[in-house]
Design brief:
This protein has 93 residues and is an alpha+beta fold. It has helices spanning 25-33, 39-42, 58-69, 73-81, 86-91; strands spanning 5-11, 17-22, 48-55. It is built from five helices and three strands, in the order E-E-H-H-E-H-H-H. Residues 3-78 form the GIY-YIG domain.
């Protein structure tokens, strides 16, 4: 059984965006909303899943997470809306 690795973006109650990595995004989302996730999201509950990308290796997923975290909010919103491909957003760095 192959493991999938994912990068996700959630929108917090205050409208801010949080990017993270998980093997099981649904479980991670539940953890965030239970107040046991990242410190950042604990003060901004609830969070809503806005975007996911899956990868076959953890290394690729973590590289992508880093790349997304370097994007401006506007670029992240474009990514969520489907107006920017993975390649294009990686080129923004």
């Amino acid at each position: 059984m192959s493991e999938h690795h994912a990068v996700y973006i959630v929108r917090c109650r205050d409208g801010s965006l949080y990017t993270g990595y998980a093997v099981d995004v649904e479980k991670r989302l539940a953890t965030h909303n239970a107040g046991q996730g990242a410190k950042y999201t604990r003060a901004r509950l609830p969070v809503v899943l806005e975007y996911t990308e899956t990868f076959t290796t953890k290394s690729d997923a973590l590289k992508r997470e880093y790349a997304i975290k370097q994007l401006t909010r506007t670029k992240k919103e474009q990514l969520i809306q489907g107006g920017m491909t993975s390649h294009e957003s990686n080129q923004q760095l």
